[in-house]
Amino acid sequence: MIRKSVYALITLLGVALLVAWLNRDALVDRAIQARLQQGPDESFTDDKQHVRVLICGTGSPEVSAAAAQACTLVSAGGKMFLFDVGDGAVHSLAQSKIPVDRLERIFITHFHSDHFHDLAPLINTGWIWGRKTPLEVQGPVGTKQVLDGLAQAYALDEGYRSANMPHLKKNRSVAFGVPLEVEFGEGQRTIRVYNKDGVTIDATLVAHDPVQPALGYVLRYKGKKVFVSGDTEVSPVNFEAMRDADLAVHESYAAHMVRRAIPQMKKLGMHFEAEVAERTIPYHADNIALAKQAQEAGVKHLLLTHLIPYPDNFVVRRMYTAGMAEYFKGELTVAQDGMVLVVGDQRASPVNDKHPSRPPNNDESGR
Ligand SMILES: [Zn+2]
Ligand SMILES: [Zn+2]
């Protein structure tokens, strides 16, 4: 009986393979068509009611399993704003099917390399794939210097491609970004840098000494407020930006873990690593101090990103937020690359399951 079933199965399989072989051209054509028809993710531009967030990078300069360094996409009123674009960010945006030629503006928080490594591919890719207007890059003083340098570095590429493609030649100014530098007056800490169609974005000085200036950004739309911290220690200067935020996308540093690791590093002869760890503690946001400040400021949802040390396994992930829930009573999430959320839906933090960098442990609450 079993043998008969096996024969029947083999025959069936043989027939199926024969049919596939006879129709191979049609099948290949259909696969090509399906691939060509894979469109971009329109949800960020179609949704004009909500503020939506894609975490496109959760890493830091530390070599880690994170797919990308600093990168946060926020959409409001159907426009997409990108905050920082570290190494791997463009790849991560592509994995989430974000049409990079349609970004409204880029906002750089500061010029540590893990926040702007991918600026060049972002500008270049947008130009090649059909962007019609030059990309505006907002950032602290220094933005022009960086964009001028990139324009010089990419001048040859621009020339070659323009010579080959008439549409690129017509749009050759799009090959380079437009710098918009934020300059603060005496005693000024916050400046409105975007105000259009109900969306406002303020640049605000944060505390990341010796990096000066270092900026955070506050986006408001339809009564919702999002604070993107950039790199900052926990400081009273950030309080107003955090106050009553529906969502704070905040850098995070598990200092209790780093402090515990330093003596072990020294024991193992890893003196360089120990020194780096010691030097980075003071200018990043210690998780416990951050939990206290977020609670005091009335933050509804605290989303941790720029994760140090990177919680790339179950044990580190469990330890990462230890003690925070004692002080912060709102929603707490440890971000992952590819995570999407709608601001206001506090429990809704679905991870884009197509994103390959997703860690195996899908415990998003992080508590
Ligand atoms: Zn950084
Ligand atoms: Zn930094």
Would you kindly provide a brief summary of this structure?
By secondary structure, the chain is α/β, with parallel strands linked by helices. The protein contains 14 helices and 14 strands.
What is the string of helix and strand elements?
HHHEEEHEHEHHHEEEEEHEHHHEHHEE
- Radius of gyration from the alpha-carbon trace, in angstroms: 24 Å
Helical segment count = 14
Q: Mean of the pLDDT scores? A: 88
Strands ordered across the widest β-sheet: 6-5-4-3-2-1-14
Number of domains: 2
Gross geometry = globular
Give the C-level CATH assignment of the largest domain.
Alpha Beta
Bound molecules: zinc ion
Give the termini distance in whole angstroms: 55 Å
The description of the largest β-sheet is: 7 strands, mixed
Second CATH tier, the architecture of the largest domain: 4-Layer Sandwich
From the helix content, strand content and strand pairing, which structural class follows?
A: alpha/beta
CATH superfamily of the largest domain: Ribonuclease Z/Hydroxyacylglutathione hydrolase-like
Please indicate the percent range of residues in DSSP E strands (runs of 2 or more). 15-25%
Uncertain runs with pLDDT below 50, 5 residues or more? 356-367
Report helical residue fraction: 25-40%
Per the CATH scheme, the topology name of the largest domain is Metallo-beta-lactamase, Chain A
